[in-house]
Design brief:
This protein is about 30% helix and about 30% strand. It contains five helices and nine strands, in the order αααααβββββββββ. By secondary structure, the protein is of the alpha+beta class. An eight-stranded antiparallel β-barrel has the order 1-2-3-4-5-7-8-9. It starts with a helix and ends with a strand. It is globular, with a radius of gyration of 42 Å. It is found in: Plastid. InterPro entries: PAP (IPR039633), PAP/fibrillin_dom (IPR006843).
């Protein structure tokens, strides 16, 4: 018969031999414990793996596309701002110094947001008939702008009507067209004419346009519209003043499907819209 001390010691020897302190070493004497211990890590691994996959799907997925391009949102409002400033200036003929500065600042803001113009890939954007709505040089009160030209509102009343640029990118034709009303002594009515200054153009670099003058054609309007157009004799190159070389350059600083901004070789800012 076992003594009390041997009975008390027996469980300790059993537990010691089964290594109860290290449950993973249990074998066949306790199969249910082995199964429990094997399933628990599996469930934990599945849980951790699922959590990791969920975290990766949130953190590593590509960000959603922006709602809209910021540039495409800004350009229409900046265009509207510029057109609002210049629309009441009679193409620049009534602009004062403050008007000139406001128009220039609004144009620069639009040019900066839109970025550089590359006409080597977008030359077709020049195609069409463009209406001039503002020229900073017209504030000099001459039809030549920053170049010599007929005075307006002086001894010989000259009223400037609409001004256009007609550009053909295939033939390289570049025509400046101006509607002009020439005053006449009473009782004669004023003479309305359309003057077309024909040029050829070429692209220099990515955004600079060079135009070369060819001829001026005048067509009468109104009561004398039945008269055929006539060509104004060209001043010989030897007699032409240095200020009127017959050619010029300007940079296209902004252009899209309906609006164009140019800056001339004499600092002239012009704004056009397509017609």
């Amino acid at each position: 018969m076992a003594t009390s001390s041997s009975i008390l010691e027996a469980p300790a020897s059993i537990f010691s031999s089964c290594s109860i302190r290290s449950p993973l070493t249990l074998r066949k004497p306790y199969p249910f414990l082995v199964n429990i211990k094997r399933r628990r890590p599996q469930r934990k691994r599945n849980f951790v793996l699922k959590s990791a996959v969920e975290d990766v799907s949130v953190l590593d997925s590509p960000p959603p596309p922006p709602p809209a391009d910021a540039k495409s949102q800004l350009i229409p409002s900046l265009k509207l701002k510029l057109l609002s400033i210049v629309s009441g200036l009679n193409r620049g003929l009534s602009a004062n110094e403050d008007d000139l500065q406001k128009a220039d600042a609004a144009a620069k803001e639009l040019e900066t947001v839109a970025g550089p113009v590359d006409l080597t890939t977008d030359l077709d954007k020049l195609q069409g008939k463009w209406k001039l709505i503002y020229s900073s040089a017209f504030s000099s009160r001459t039809l030549g702008g920053s170049r010599p030209g007929l005075p307006t509102g002086r001894l010989l009343p000259v009223t400037l009507g609409q001004v256009f640029q007609r550009i053909d990118v295939v033939s390289k034709d570049f025509d400046n067209i101006a509607e002009v009303e020439l005053g006449a002594p009473w009782p004669l009515p004023p003479l309305e004419v359309t003057a077309t200054l024909a040029h050829k153009f070429e692209l220099l670099g990515t955004s600079t346009v060079k135009i070369t003058f060819e001829k001026t054609t005048v067509k009468t309007k109104g009561n004398l519209s039945q008269l055929p157009p006539f060509e104004v004799p060209r001043i010989p190159d030897a007699l032409r003043p240095p200020s009127n070389p017959g050619s010029g350059e300007f940079d296209v600083t902004f252009i899209d499907s309906d609006t164009r901004i140019t800056r001339g070789d004499r600092g002239e800012l012009r704004v056009f819209v397509i017609t």
